[in-house]
Amino acid sequence: MPITAVNKDLDALTLQVVADFTAPVRRLWDAYLDPSQIERFWGPPTYPATFTRHDGSPGGLSNYVMNGDDGGVSRGYWKWVAVEEGRSFEVRDGFSNDDGSPNTDMPDMRMVFDFQETALGSRLVTTTYFNSLEELEQLVEMGMEEGMRDAMGQIDTVLEDLAAFAAGNGTELQLIGDTQARASRVIRGSVDQVWRAHHDPELLRRWQLGPDGWSMPICEVSPDVGGLNRFGWQNESGDEQFGFVGETLESEAPVRSVTTERMWTPEDPEAANSPSTINEMTLTPVEGGTLLVLVITYPDAETREMILATGMVDGMEASYARLESEVLAA
Hints:
Elements: E1 3-9, E2 14-21, H1 25-33, H2 35-38, E3 49-54, E4 61-67, E5 73-84, E6 88-95, E7 109-117, E8 122-129, H3 133-141, H4 144-152, H5 155-160, E9 172-176, E10 180-187, H6 191-199, H7 201-207, E11 215-220, E12 228-234, E13 241-252, E14 256-264, E15 277-286, E16 289-297, H8 301-308, H9 312-328
Antiparallel strand pairs: 1-2, 2-8, 3-4, 4-5, 5-6, 6-7, 7-8, 9-10, 10-16, 11-12, 12-13, 13-14, 14-15, 15-16
């Protein structure tokens, strides 16, 4: 059990949890910043969490849902207030409605996560600041302390699984709910480099080449909200073409972008008959490079299965490997 102390201060309206680990600080930090890792311990074993968004930067937002073994559902969010890379972060933690909006009928809290190096590894001090004594007592009554103990008791297993989180693992895919998929990969390069590689047409043409033997003659990308994006590939003879068109919905350089995407062909150049997806890309600095997380929302489950069956993940991995070897290593 990693928790070594729990301190309640009714005068300061705080609940402080101290936990010690044999893993290095960097490993512990990365576990909290990677959605595929934090959801393995953010929530008790009987109420595991799924993160549909996790932006580890000031002004960012995290959304998660915990589905209980008893059929119960609990939704929550973090609003990221401050981040000191590798040392601490502060969030506003609260409950969410079914649509992801804050549930104002329930308390929200300020939480500070402080990561410290120790002789044996690392220490995490989590301090929760409540708005009133009534809110503190309400959440303690709801089992907050016991929930944190159960949740943090799972972290050691995650930290020991070093092979599950490392540069060179390749692109990994996880299905979320009925209509989403999350692809993630650690890319050997800085956040700024990976962002630029996704938004500079000259660089994009060097690594997003499509199938073997194809080129990318059309590459129009806009980082501005409302801007249009158009990409097109063709084979060597030029008698086969396809591409994607979409719009930039959100852009927070160099950490997050949200775009739409529809596939076009010469027979349907405006992609009027193609289903549209929403692609949310988040870039987070981690040990070994940048964690790229792409959450794709499809119009329905059938469309998701159809697109994934085309070998999309293999194509993404080939492109990311090319990005590392031909762009970032240059």
